[in-house]
Write a structure and sequence with these properties.
single chain; alpha/beta; eight-stranded parallel beta sheet; two-stranded antiparallel ribbon; 11 helices; globular; binds NADPH dihydro-nicotinamide-adenine-dinucleotide phosphate
C-alpha cells in the first residue's frame, strides 16, 4: 500500500474502500472482508446511513485503530456550526471511536462556513486528524481556502478516466489540497470495465481495466476509494501496487478525458435544488 502525507503531515493510504450504496445490513460484513484482504482506509458518510455498520466492523476487527484511516462526511442537513458539532458527536458514536481521521463537508451547500468552523474546532482539539471538503469546485474552494485558518487537506471529487478534472487539480495543487476520486471506476459507465484502451494496456501486465484505472489515478497523485461488495473484486482493486504504467500509457489514458461529468453538474441550479431536498432527509437519528 502506498501512503501520502497530507498538507498537515498526517499519512493517508492512497487506496481505500468506499461504502456508498452499501445497505447498513450488509455493510458490516463488507467492511470486515475489506479489512481482512488488506484495506486500511474506509470512506463513509452521514448520508450513507451505514456509519454504525462501519463502527461495528472496525470494533470487531483485530486491526489496531492506529492502523486504520476513517473518513466520514457531514451532510447538508447537518450544516452550520452548532448542528455540525452535534453531527460530529453522532458520527463519533456511530463509528465507535474517540477520533476520526478525516471529516469532509459533503457538499458545498447550506451553511458550509459554519460547518467548517466546527471542523476547525474539532481539529484543534485533536478529535479529527484532518479536515477537508467534497464536491467543491474552483470558486468555492479558493474562497474557503482563503478565508479559513486550517487549509482543507482533501477535496473529494468525481474523478475517473472520462472526467479527469485537470483544471480543478491545478488549483488544488496551488493550495496543497490533495485530490481524492469518488467513483474512480465511473461505476462502470462508458463500459469502463471492458474499455479497449484500458484492457489493451492491462494485457501488458495481466491486469484488468479496473486495475489499470486505479493505477493510473494513483500515478496521477489521486487518492482512490473504489466500492465493491464482492471479495474477489476487493482483492482485484487493491492489487495495483505491483506494476507501473509507462509515460506513453499514461498519455493514452489522459486522452480518454471528456472533461464532462458522468453523474451530476454541481453548477446546475436544479442539481443544487435536488441536493437541498435530499438535505431535508434526517440523518441525525440513524
Ligand atoms: P465506483 O467507481 O467505485 O464503482 C463501483 C461499482 O463498480 C459498483 O457497482 C461495483 O459493483 C463495481 N465494481 C467495483 N470494482 C469492480 C471490478 N473490479 N470489476 C467490475 N466491477 C467492479 O463507484 P462509487 O460511486 O461507489 O464510488 C466509490 C466511493 O466513492 C463510494 O463508495 C463513496 O465512498 C465515494 N463517493 C463519494 C461521493 C461524494 O459525493 N463525495 C459520491 C459518490 C461516491 P459490485 O459492488 O457489485 O462489485
Amino acid at each position: 500500500m502506498d501512503y501520502v502525507a497530507l498538507n498537515n503531515g498526517v499519512k493517508m493510504p492512497m487506496l481505500g474502500y468506499g461504502v456508498y450504496q452499501i445497505e447498513e445490513a450488509e455493510c458490516e460484513a463488507c467492511v470486515s472482508e475489506a479489512l481482512e484482504v488488506g484495506y486500511r482506509s474506509i470512506d463513509t458518510a452521514q448520508a450513507y446511513l451505514n456509519e454504525r455498520a462501519v463502527g461495528k466492523a472496525i470494533r470487531k476487527s483485530s486491526v489496531p485503530r492506529s492502523e486504520l484511516f476513517l473518513t466520514t462526511k457531514i451532510w447538508v442537513s447537518n450544516a452550520g456550526y452548532e448542528k455540525a458539532k452535534l453531527s460530529i458527536e453522532k458520527s463519533l458514536e456511530n463509528l465507535q471511536t474517540d477520533y476520526i481521521d478525516l471529516v469532509l463537508i459533503h457538499q458545498a451547500s447550506n451553511d458550509y462556513y459554519g460547518t467548517y468552523r466546527a471542523l476547525e474546532e474539532y481539529y484543534r482539539e485533536g478529535k479529527i486528524r484532518a479536515i477537508g471538503v467534497s464536491n467543491f469546485y474552483g470558486d468555492r474552494l479558493v474562497d474557503l481556502a482563503e478565508f479559513s485558518t486550517v487549509m482543507p487537506a482533501i477535496n473529494q471529487i468525481e474523478l475517473h478516466p472520462f472526467y479527469q478534472q485537470n483544471d480543478l487539480r491545478e488549483i488544488m495543487k496551488d493550495y496543497q489540497i490533495m485530490p481524492e476520486a469518488w467513483s474512480p471506476l465511473a461505476e462502470g459507465k462508458n463500459n469502463l470495465f471492458t474499455h479497449d484502451v484500458l484492457k489493451a494496456i492491462g494485457s501488458n501486465y495481466k491486469k484488468t481495466a479496473a486495475q489499470v484505472t486505479l493505477r493510473y489515478l494513483i500515478q496521477l497523485g489521486v487518492i482512490v476509494i473504489p466500492k465493491t461488495i464482492h471479495r474477489e473484486r476487493m482483492i482485484e482493486n487493491i492489487t495495483i501496487f505491483d506494476f507501473h504504467l509507462t509515460e506513453e500509457e499514461m498519455k493514452q489514458i489522459a486522452q480518454l478525458d471528456t472533461n464532462q461529468t458522468l453523474f451530476m453538474d454541481h453548477h446546475n441550479p436544479m442539481v443544487v435544488k435536488e441536493l437541498t431536498k435530499l438535505g431535508k432527509i434526517e440523518t441525525m437519528d440513524k
